[in-house]
Task: structure prediction
Amino acid sequence: MACHVHVPKPLHGWKAFCNEIAVIVIGVLIALALEALVEWAH
Result:
């Protein structure tokens, strides 16, 4: 069974950079919202 390793591609331009930052920010906001929901439920 072969293991495929995907090397991350370098970002090309500001649009790609902003997309990556937006994905990270949205993920953090979702995590914070879920944490607040759990605290509220307790």
Q: What stands out?
A: The two ends are 46 Å apart (CA to CA). Residues 13-41 form the longest helix (29 residues). The mean pLDDT is 88. The helical segments are 13-41.
